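Changelog-linked ticket: GDP-alpha-D-glucose example.
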Amino acid sequence: MSSQRESQHSFVVVAGRLPVDRTEGPDGQQEWRTSPGGLVTALEPVMRDAGGVWIGWSGDAGPAPGAFEADGLHLIGLSLSETEVRRFYEGFCNATLWPLYHDVIAVPQFHRSWWEAYVAVNRRFAAAAAEQAAPGATVWVHDYQLQLVPKMLREQRDDVRIGFFNHIPFPGYEIFAQLPWRRQVVEGLLGADLLGFQRRADATNFLRACRRAVGLATKGSTVRTGARDVTAAAFPISIDSAGLTELAQREDVLKRSKQIREAIGEPRLVLLGVDRLDYTKGILHRLRAYGELVDSGRLGPQAVLVQVASPSRERVEAYQTLRDEVEAMVGRINGQHGELGYAPVHYLHQSFPREEMAAMYLAADVMLVTPLRDGMNLVAKEYVAARYDEGGTLVLSEFTGAADELAGAYLVNPHDIEGMKNIIVQAAMASPAEARRRMRAMRRRVGEHDVARWAAGFLDTLSQVPVSGDS
Ligand code: GDG
């Protein structure tokens, strides 16, 4: 027991994925590389100070990697079987919860075998967290893949503080109520002491679900569960703003941003979209609006849209259909309006290194972030952080968490194609002074509210929750 205690951790992160990718070294040996994401950037210092551990899935159906270290981080890799990848990950997570929580943009599928896999995988994650947590530890569980973990963990360890953060929206009750297992999901989440959501509206939706699905009383942002009170509040996530600003100022990145404009023929106007290829991101609506603008000539001669659509969830049917539709539409626009040496849309179904992303942000005149629904949308904040030159304008969907914060953006309803076209034209024609005024306001917000502040805000609030054993 004592040796187990010694290897336990006072801070435990539980997330669907590990913050590393398995790659093959030059000698054919497998290596782990940290995948640079905001979450790991924010939590790394906390993990190092507290000697924390990160529990997650390795990303493939191979055997569990178990405990290992990468770049000085303690990691525990759990496994999923081939069947669990299909039923838990591609099924319940990405074909049930994802469309349901994004306001049923795609039709969610409900299968009992998928739910059973979800319960089993959540149980495995909870058991690993219970094993790794030192007495009185803080455990931070992330996202919709692991909503049952808080309750399962509390049943084994009532001495730990449990926080949960939901990265995606929490839907209104009429939509959430479709879920056959709505009660179990709400009860699973209520195992936590603190539940964080992106926007206040998400927290409000959750509180309503507590009343309607479980019949609990709520007061302000508190749910009375009997033994304990649980708090549900908004903690809007952010990015490593200073890190991205610094990257964007690097000489090689600046040079690359110029090369990008040259490579696409030095057009007068460059529009940019950067998204995972996901139906929530509104790529088809955006292309429709842009295509019609090109048709009518309202953007002037030879505008160019660069659309990065990074490959995502490629084995899920709705994503395969979307890819076909996007590629057909890009083909139509280019076929109709292209000329030798000029294509109105440059479509890139690829992933790029961070440096290239920063260079693209700098090369753009207008950034188009037009999701139909998005918890936050970090791309919008990254664009703002990269624009140290205070140039460029941002067209942003009202249905993103980011819209609550970025008052300097040109807000659009992506379902309103005509309205979106007008706003895109406005953003493209903004005077440099107007663009700068708006960008400055957004940069202030993103600079002050970065991901470190987000993590500290959540963890400070969680640390104030009394746990059993506190005097
Ligand atoms: C979920 C929620 C919430 C994309 N392509 C490449 C690349 N990316 C990076 C972006 C950005 C991230 O991926 C995407 O983050 P988003 O926030 O835009 O969207 P989701 O993936 O849907 O994230 C969302 C987020 O969780 C955090 O809570 O904001 O609402 O849906 O950082 O830059 N990065 C690189 N190459 C690519 O090709 N290097």
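Closing comment: Example verified and attached. The chain has a mean pLDDT of 93. Residues 167-168, 237, 274, 276, 308, 310, 351-354, 357, 374-379, 382 surround GDP-alpha-D-glucose (CB under 6 Å).
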